[in-house]
From TrEMBL:
Protein name: Methyltransferase domain-containing protein
Single GO BP term: methylation
Native organism taxonomy: Bacteria, Bacillati, Actinomycetota, Actinomycetes, Kitasatosporales
Transmembrane segments: none
Occurrences of domain Methyltransferase (ranges): 44-154
Origin: domain of life: Bacteria
Organism of origin: Streptomyces violaceorubidus
Keywords: Methyltransferase, Transferase
A GO term, aspect molecular function: methyltransferase activity
């Protein structure tokens, strides 16, 4: 699949997911964004850029930290995400927050515009992320930091999903997917430089960064039930998988996931999945 088709599919998926994105009672992106901001630790008065900001999982915690003298700019390729984030900014009267529709592969800012660049679960969607990240290094002030999250990939993991899903998603349901959306193709697209911390550090160093730190920590994903998880999965990147399944396979996968996720619950208690997340922090030279 060529890059522009891929990008427009990703944009369309997040545009149509935006109204319910991360708002169906499942906790995942919001706690992850808050934690990424803790790792990046923007200081009072700093200028922060959030790439692929979605509805603002990092934007608003960052705005709290930088305070009234700071600035947080959120960019996203999906217009509907930016509209939702802007509604939230208005509700919060967050007047140090600016939101813009922009392709994160081609950031359009003057050199030295930011002290911190963030990207939570968004860098993975950039078709050539290492090349894109190299464009962020000059946008940072001397000593400025880049911090982003990604899934923790392993060979047998379905991309984006915690290892438990390797067992729960039967491969035969995925055989009819267009080749570009099969798990093997997605693995290759997303994890080639992110899977191995040494590879990741080398890639970031080539992109102009130094002092790379990679910390894997679980985010406790909590959903009321298997059904709640499946409904929520349509509001995030997995929507791309659902979109590409034939109707009968989509229905089979839906039923299978609801049943097997409910089997992981302790009676009526919520479904809890400890989901490994990779937090990467790095800096440009002072
Ligand atoms: C999984 S969401 C994460 C959103 C947000 N950072 C959060 O943690 O909730 C991925 C986001 O990346 C955005 N995205 C994907 N490709 C992008 C691109 N080329 N440029 C900018 N944003 C992009 C999507 O529109 C989506 O909002």
């Amino acid at each position: 699949m060529d890059t522009s088709t891929y990008k427009s599919e990703v944009t369309a998926a997040f545009n149509s997911a935006a109204a319910s994105y991360d708002r169906l009672g499942v906790e995942f992106f919001t706690p992850m964004g808050r934690r990424l901001v803790e790792h990046a630790a923007p200081r009072e008065g700093e200028r922060v850029l959030d790439v692929g900001c979605g509805r603002g999982a990092c934007v608003f915690p960052a705005a709290e930290r930088v305070g009234p003298k700071g600035l947080v700019v959120g960019i996203d390729v999906a217009e509907a995400m930016i509209e939702e984030a802007a509604k939230e900014a208005a509700l919060r009267r967050a007047d140090t927050v600016e939101l813009r529709v922009m392709d994160g592969e081609h950031p359009d800012f003057a050199p030295g515009s930011f002290d911190v660049v963030l990207g939570s679960y968004s860098v993975i969607f950039l078709p050539d992320a290492p090349a894109a990240l190299a464009r962020y290094a000059p946008l940072l002030s001397p000593g400025g930091r880049l911090a982003f999250t990604s899934p923790v990939f392993s060979d047998d993991t379905f991309p984006f999903l915690p290892p438990v899903f390797t067992e729960l998603i039967p491969r035969e349901l995925l055989l009819d997917l267009p080749s570009a959306w099969r798990p093997e193709a997605l693995q290759q697209r997303f994890n080639s430089w992110l899977a191995d911390p040494a590879d990741l550090a080398r890639t970031l160093e080539r992109a102009g960064f130094q002092d790379v730190s990679v910390v894997d920590e679980p985010v406790r994903l909590v959903a009321e039930s298997g059904l709640a998880w499946v409904d929520w999965s349509h509001t995030q990147g997995m929507r791309l998988l659902w979109n590409h399944l034939a109707d009968d396979k989509r229905q089979q996968l839906r039923e299978r996931l609801i049943t097997s996720l409910d089997a992981l619950r302790d009676g009526e208690s919520p479904l809890v999945i400890e989901t490994p997340v990779r937090y990467v922090t790095t800096a440009v030279g002072a």
